[in-house]
Amino acid sequence: MSHPLYWLGRVYFYPVGNTSAVCLTEELPPEHKADVLLLGCGDPRHVLYTVYADMSTSHEPRKLDITCCDVDAAILARNTLLFTLLADEDAEVRLPSIWNVFYHMMLDENSLSVLIEQCRKLVPLAESLDSWRQGPYAHVVTMCNSDTLSEIGRFWKLWLGTSSFNVTQAERFREDFKNGMKTVRKRVEDSVVTTSMRSAGPLAAVTLFAVSEHFKRFWMTGVTDDGSPATKPANNPNPTFAFSLFGDEFAVHYGTDPISGFHLAEALASSGLESTNKTALVIPKVVRTARQQFSTWCKAVIRRVQNSSASSASLTVRMYAGEALAFCQALRSINASAAHTPIFIAPWRRSTVQLDDTLYSLRAPSPAPTSFNVIETSTLLDHLGLQNLLTATIPLLLDSPSSTLYTEALLPAGHSPVQGILDHMCGDLSTSSLLLGVVPSAYISRFTTRSNTAETTMEAMGESHRSQYYERLTWKHINFGRLSNSSHKAEVSFTAPQLARKLFDIYLRMFSGEDLRKKNAILSLDKPRAQRLIKSSMIIHYSRRSFALLLAHIRTRVRSDWNRVIQDLEALIRQDRTLITGSNFYQETICQLYLAGFGLPRFSLVDVRKFRSQDDLPIFQSWSKVPDVVTIVLVVPRHVIAKVQSDLSGIGTPFFQCEIQLNPMHAAFASISGSFGKLKVSGEGENKMAVVVEDRDGINGTSPMIVSFPVLSSTLIYMSRGTVGLAICPTSGNPALIAKLGLQLSLFNVPLTDKRYVHILTRAPTTGNDTINSEYTLGPPKLDADSQGHPIHAEMDKSNTEVQSLTAHVNIADPTGQASLASGCAVTVEQLSLNKAKLHVDQYEHVISFPLPVDVANAKLRIARKSKYVEVIAPMTLTLNVKGESDITRNFRMAFDCGVPTLWSMHRMDLDRCPSFKLSKSRKAFDWLGLHVGLMFSQRECMSRQQRVTLGSTAPDTFKNLKDSLYTLFITAAGSNGPTQAEFALWDSEEKRCYAMILVTDIRLDLGSHTVVADSWIIPWSNDFQGKLKIARTLSIKTDAHESAAWRHLLPLFIERCRTWKHKPSCEYFVHNSVPLYPGAGSDPKQVSWCSCGVGVGTEMVGERYGSVAAKYATRAAISPLFAVSYMEKVGGTIDDLTEPALTRCVGCGKGGVPLFACSKCKRAKYCSKDCQVKDWKTHKKNCVLT
């Protein structure tokens, strides 16, 4: 395993999700089939919501193939139970009971009966894969292997078994269950639990006390109460909450709240409640809304799964029980080996992944997906580490511009999002993205259409109401708009010394917990912050195996002299004194690099043969052939574990490591595998084998612990007279353990030659005949040494911290181009997009695709006229230091994927699935919309806005100006600050002409992204028909030339993201090979920037409201706020600041503390008198909207 092995002292059960549902297909064009991988899938809320909200351009729904992976089979058993209930004929009638079964910890008699009767049907079907395939639910739920079905069936039997309890057993079951609930209540009785606040998105502030009160009521009663008088008494423990990976002990996570997985804003958007609302009014609203959403989503699933067969099914859900990283490794190996992949299922398990041959083999008639265009990883990042996660998942991500990988992180309170992403990436984001091949999409676009309003609100309320900061990142392949010919193509090159130094820097950051200087620095901080950092530093995600696999992945993408890279890197690691235990892990580092396919010449087998020739060598004497790497198996007696078991379980997640010692040498190994059971050994020498008979009671059983790890044979020979042992990682130490075990925290230590406890094998032991050579399979394949062409070369800066420039080498192969170059014609280069440039040599042209954005305007050219090539050396532009810019058109990106437009940083939506709302006109109502839309602006932009109003013009910042216009559109269309105005004209104040009209017919909730969207219709401006529109009045939004150009690029994206029609073969995008059309036309109304494919489609309502001419020329668009990116710029402040940035002083004279009135047109600039307003008009009119 690449993740260190930790003690399973306390494992929580997560029966329901703690974040609201998202649409998994929101980045995919509607024409594309969706192959989705859910890692750490949790409950099925994402699947349910996706089925409901998914877009389609035809009457037939998109095919959804969703693979769900979770280490806890109890979660999959619950999910499968739900899908089978929805597949039954009477599903719609029983939806209220199904809600109870899935979300209530205490059940009424009728709901319990529904559960038990379903289990009676499911248990026989779980006897074998054949019985499941022949059953009535196989067309909906597919099992990836027999082990998964067996584990899921085991929980169904446990649930069913509770119905046969005698009186004593039933009473004990009920008492233990209620005691578990009581323990959680005691833990939070004096706390304000805000977990579900984020599910209310922009209305989080309204729910503060309500969600906390609902949480406590749920844990008191075990049910969600919507105030209905028909609610039945619930006195029966729900068996689906009682059993989990932890056994039959109550383990439901203390943050569990059924309403967390739903979109609570829908209940409150039109309510008119105050931010300090009455809790009694809010709780029934949000519970009823959660129930209604569940019912609506389930009905969408029912329509798909009923009356369909395996061949015609548009929804397939696949279940796999096991650890996410191991499953990813198994999927990668499908095309290279048999389906029975020698990879351990999960930590503390010795059985290996054996996927169903009928689905996962080259001869499978209808193979299951092994590559995906959507990978959702939930919050596994917090449990497995981002580098482990990316290394495992990126190779499974289909090479397509629309393919998307999602990661979520719950950063501890007090950690900035900026520092959080740098810590997770273990270095500079731009350089890491180049090395890995994926990049957060918002990092390039500098905006996001998803809102973190709830996080900002919770942060502004102070530490007492906030424990974590939720951050969701959308990753896409770099080289947007250009597909690689091969998944292993080298897209970028580095010099060996620079690459080695950069990889060494990543190494130091991955293992920064071993850096004594950082530990001392933490101790110098104030106590609360020091305690937080000490706690987080005790969580270890990476082993040297992680680092080796990361390098193996990078090698598939980066061209360099890899022999030199590894030699230099090995020297840097060997000579390092920064990591206090780095030298102890040196032997493991070398071993893991070797297993990943990296050779090290200085470790020659000549020395091994020389040592083996010694007669008194205590090991390998009976071996005829010694492999380069062997496996050490250590059997740790149960009594050794028993004496510290309570201490281990009391300190969170202590990590284990194995150690080989021969004074003064000390080698530590953290890439270890563990299990509990009996070891059966047979054979001798290199033929010696071992099989583990697992103890299913695990840490609560009586069997010894069996650990194994790979080691270089040379290391073992050098230290063959030493000892081997098991220890606890020093970062996991506490006073009680140190008192029992000593400072070294050694649990067990015996001579390497002690055959009672130590076994040296050529392969790691498993539960059967499957073998794992040297503990792990080799890493990804090497690059083809004969790769053709010149990759983009990356040059590091002087400090070797980040990439400074990218160099494109262009061979001029065209005879005309060669002649022009040789004759001395001028060579120029122009920027086409963020990452594309066009090289000109007289009439010869060549388009260069850089993997990431560059500054072509400041590029240098290296021209070799005789050698017939040109090199373009362009500075990298990506940075976390955001500044205002005038030209932002290149940030709005669209590319073509198999002839279908694909968006970069703007999610798609079905507008008809987004509920509309009307703002309350009550003066006491919380102005949530103004606060929410105002949070588009970063703190930098807020300051700039205020300076613009007080001081006049400031430095160009088109993003800020664009957000100002969007703010005006939303606030005015919703009637937030006065009468509603829904008709807008985009007005170029320099050209003095309108270039487009926007008709807002609804303001809707974009629930999955916690924001709002203007359901709009775009009409190109034309004097020919403008007078024929039935529009009494329009509000003109003034834009300068740069903002006009930005709108020209943005409007096609707003249109594309919500289309339910197909692009025609004659689509202007394809004809002109350009989005937008006529990109340099500025505000010329005659050159429309969007295609005509959607013009007049679905405009019946527009015709009724604005007339037939408007309906003829209108195209539907989904206009969203464009939010600042939280890990790039600071957003928000104190709770008092989270409103539309308003002035407290007169714009004209600067006087404060006096009554002010606002400009009647823009409502933003404020004055103390009419004289001040008149004097300021010359300055203010440039920024004021015009009626």
UniProtKB/TrEMBL annotation:
Residues 1146-1184 form the MYND-type domain. InterPro entries: DUF4470, TF_DEAF-1, Znf_MYND. It holds the Pfam family DUF4470. GO terms for cellular component: nucleus. GO terms for molecular function: DNA-binding transcription factor activity, RNA polymerase II-specific; zinc ion binding. Keywords: Metal-binding, Zinc, Zinc-finger. It comes from the Eukaryota. This is MYND-type domain-containing protein. It comes from Pisolithus microcarpus 441. The lineage of its organism: Eukaryota, Fungi, Dikarya, Basidiomycota, Agaricomycotina.
